[in-house]
Design brief:
Shape: globular
Strand content: 15-25%
Mean pLDDT: 73
Number of helices: 4
Oligomer: single chain
Order of helices and strands: EEHHEEEHEEEEH
Low-confidence stretches: 7-62, 225-250
């Protein structure tokens, strides 16, 4: 699996909150404040761009935004494959933002999309991007109370939109599973951070979805690994097709 940065070139308009899910549940998006993307920071300098970090990737977890700057510091492709027990073909795409409205309370946001279908060299990307198998977003806030409030509003919005909401604590934190017709997400606040994990239906079996989401959340918040990720089969029935989108999947 390769990895690339998505490099936004200008401010994005306000989307509707955290589980965009961007947040970002496809069905639960976070948007009470506009997200102003900046050129993502990588472990290598970019020629001619003084805003790129030329330095040590290990510095990112202690970023002043309160969130990691690299997907590998959040969950690597190997971590994801081990927990899901399903190989995902494609790229890992990273978007890092550290500019938000002052009154939003948010200090930074890292969104990592795993298994993004690659566009063959010389071909034009499709006008409508294919669905992403897994997306993880972490946001930093000025204090724990603000972070917890974001989870509350996300859950309320999901319920209002008709999603099935199930309380599911993880590593001592109050978390929630949010499921709609397209995907299932897990949202949780831990201190000054919020995490949103969105898994598309069909990547693993329905019975395995809550198992792997809780395992991913446990990995992210640094809780004890209970080993429950393998307590249910994760390979979804595919009728002869791959359980996850291939690089050329629509």
């Amino acid at each position: 699996m390769t990895s690339r940065d998505r490099r936004p070139t200008g401010p994005a308009t306000a989307a509707t909150l955290f589980l965009p899910l961007l947040l970002v549940l496809p069905g639960c998006s976070n948007g009470d404040e506009p997200e102003v993307p900046v050129v993502p920071t990588s472990g290598e300098p970019t020629e001619g761009d003084g805003t790129e970090a030329a330095g040590d990737p290990t510095a990112s977890p202690t970023s002043t935004t309160g969130v990691p700057e690299l997907c590998g510091d959040l969950a690597s492709a190997g971590d994801v494959a081990q927990i899901l027990q399903v190989p995902m073909q494609g790229e890992t795409v990273r978007v890092y933002n550290d500019e938000f409205l002052p009154d939003s309370g948010r200090t930074g946001r890292l969104t990592c999309s795993y298994g993004v279908p690659e566009v063959p060299e010389g071909q034009t990307p499709p006008p409508t991007p294919p669905p992403v198998p897994l997306e993880i977003a972490v946001s930093g806030y000025t204090d724990a109370e603000t972070a917890a409030g974001r989870i509350e509003s996300t859950v309320d919005d999901a319920q209002a939109a008709g999603s099935v909401v199930t309380a599911q604590p993880v590593a001592g934190h109050d978390g929630f599973l949010l499921s709609d017709a397209e995907d299932v997400s897990f949202v949780v606040a831990a201190d000054v951070r919020t995490y949103v994990i969105t898994l598309r239906h069909g990547v693993v079996t329905a019975a395995a979805e809550p198992v792997v989401l809780v395992a991913l959340a446990t990995h992210l918040v640094g809780g004890e690994d209970t080993g429950t990720a393998t307590s249910a089969p994760t390979s979804a029935p595919t009728d002869g097709a791959s359980a996850t989108p291939s690089a050329t999947a629509p």
